[in-house]
Amino acid sequence: MTESNGSDSPERKEDMPDWEKRFRAPRVSLPDWAEDAPDRSLFVSNATGTYELYAWDRSTDEQRQVTDRPNGTTDGVLSPDGAWIWWFDDKDGDEFGVWRRQPFGGGPDDAAVPGLQPSYPAGLALGRDGRTAVVGRSTDEDGTTIHLARAGGDPVEIYRHRESAGVGDLSHDGSLIAVEHTEHGDAMHSALRVLRPDGTALAELDDTKGGTVELGLEALGFAPVDGDTRLLIGHQRRGRWEPLVWDVASGVETDLALDLPGDVSAEWYPDGSALLIVHSFEARSELFRYDLASRALDRVPTPAGSVSGATARPDGTVEFLWSSAAEPSTVRSTTGDVVLDPPGLKSPGSVPVEDVWVEGPGGRIHALVQKPAGVTGPLPTVFDIHGGPTWHDSDSFAAGPAAWVDHGYAVVRVNYRGSTGYGRAWTDALKHRVGLIELEDIEAVREWAVTSGLADPDRLILTGGSWGGYLTLLGLGTQPDAWTMGIAAVPVADYVTAYHDEMEALKAMDRTLLGGTPEEVPERFEASSPITYVDQVEAPVYISAGVNDPRCPIRQIDNYVKRLETRGAAHEVYRYDAGHGSLVVDERIKQVRLELDFAHRHLKV
């Protein structure tokens, strides 16, 4: 076994390869803006080499770095009055901590709610009065609790349950609180409850009741109008995510019934008269404006590709974060302007993605393929498997796959059963045969890649992070003849140990996926755990892991590695001081460099 450690020094810009430039080039998130002070915004950037929060006063164009921590900060919320920036303070990426706040113009970081002890976050909503906050917390001891905090007083608990839950939203006038909960025990499908500030329930909506098929709900936000009791929600009643408007006072539901084939999400326009619609279909997305009075659906012009965030501004314009596989992300406006254009190094583009549809055991599987321009196969091929599992790969810019393409590899990304964006049945199909279902789909696409002449069957890499890392280790053990090597980042490796060590919300998700705890359904945990099959692994394995990771904890990875060591199996391990991934650019580059080097040594590319 080889243990990697240390750090790398950045190269001079003129000597830097394109793949490294993509990681180093300054990037920004979609700016959040204060509801009652829209010239004040908050965004995330890696401009200093670490992802941190930045305040932006649009009236003066002044930008200011808000947080400065060794392992970075990305969780932040701007108060509606624009006076405060709340940010979550954990320890080295372990996601367990407290909310702090800082004045928008700068100043000390104070404990935002002094009476609350550290926890995992479970949602946050801030009141327009500048004095009220609704704070969700999760701990192993208490499950989920939600607290109402007012300036000058002690926080008051208004909700508690052992199962996972979270703050949905706080109404415009502060009189109503939406809570997403899973008290029924299905962490994949939430129900909704609307509480008054004293914790009493005003309304309930639960699509999980009364049938064998459970459907989920999500709170998308209260109408931005004082006294308005309309709550925008997402539902799955027609087999995909769609929005409807629920008046929580009268109980009236207004179904929008939009004629769009994919998953649909929405948010309010600032005056409450219309909705900004985000439509995701077959790995791409587009925007629409839906007028609630006329029921007219009008397209908001965006380029072909993926919109990973959008917001309607008070002047009626829309700002959105857009990219494609070939073009790096930018924050754009319907005015035609680029909203934020960080100075400095510009990210090189990459090659476009090609769509492939493969017949699989559970239906047609959508895969996205990138390969070096002008090169014919068979090529060394990387199957880069997304995490989640309730997520999907899209036609969007990603520096990791682009790095593999630069080095002569084809990259295949598979939206296996369990992925979002292809309907509720596709997402929910992985239950109980967890991991094995997804690998059946990946195997079907692998067969297509080889028989089509794209992939060299003797140079096939299975890789991924988080759930993708889990599927990598599981695939190496259950399909040992299919893969030449594996690269697993922050994986689940020993499912039983992972369950006992992980954060509480993920315990609830695992109980939902597998149908119980390891003690209740031991055979399912055994069947879905990579460590069950570790003695069948033949390919060289590279594993990277954050020592503070609360999602895929380090102890269960160490258990798997010890089994590899006992067998004398070819493997390398890299442990780094962070949580579920790193927010430090140098660290990200180092990890990619180590992965490329491992592949080069074992595949001779």
**Gyration radius, in Å:** 24 Å
Order of adjacent strands in the largest pleated sheet:
1-37-36-35-34-32-33-31-30
- Beta-strand content estimate: 35-45%
Termini, distance in Å? Answer: 22 Å
Structural class based on helices, strands and sheet pairing: alpha+beta
The average pLDDT score comes to 95
Count of individual beta strands: 37
Describe the main β-sheet briefly: 9 strands, mixed
| Residues in helix, % | 10-25%
> Helix count?
10
| Gross geometry | globular
**Unreliable stretches:** 1-10
Write up this protein.
The chain has 605 residues and is of the alpha+beta class. It has ten helices and 37 strands. The strands form eight sheets. Strands 1-37-36-35-34-32-33-31-30 form a nine-stranded mixed sheet, sandwiched between helices. Strands 2-3-4-5 form a four-stranded antiparallel sheet, with no helix packed on it. It is globular. Mean pLDDT is 95; it is low at 1-10.
Question: How is the secondary structure organized here?
Answer:
Layout: E1 2-4, H1 18-24, E2 32-34, E3 37-45, E4 52-57, E5 62-65, E6 76-78, E7 84-90, E8 97-103, E9 110-111, E10 120-126, E11 132-139, E12 143-150, E13 156-161, E14 165-170, E15 177-181, E16 191-195, E17 201-205, E18 217-222, E19 230-235, E20 242-247, E21 253-255, E22 263-268, E23 274-281, E24 284-291, E25 297-300, E26 306-312, E27 318-323, E28 330-333, E29 338-340, E30 354-360, E31 363-370, E32 379-385, H2 399-406, E33 410-415, H3 424-428, H4 436-451, E34 455-465, H5 467-478, E35 485-489, H6 495-501, H7 504-514, H8 522-528, E36 541-546, H9 554-567, E37 571-576, H10 585-603
Parallel strand pairs: 1-37, 32-33, 32-34, 34-35, 35-36, 36-37
Antiparallel strand pairs: 2-3, 3-4, 4-5, 6-7, 7-8, 8-9, 10-11, 11-12, 12-13, 14-15, 15-16, 16-17, 18-19, 19-20, 20-21, 22-23, 23-24, 24-25, 26-27, 27-28, 28-29, 30-31, 31-33
Helix pairs in contact: 1-2
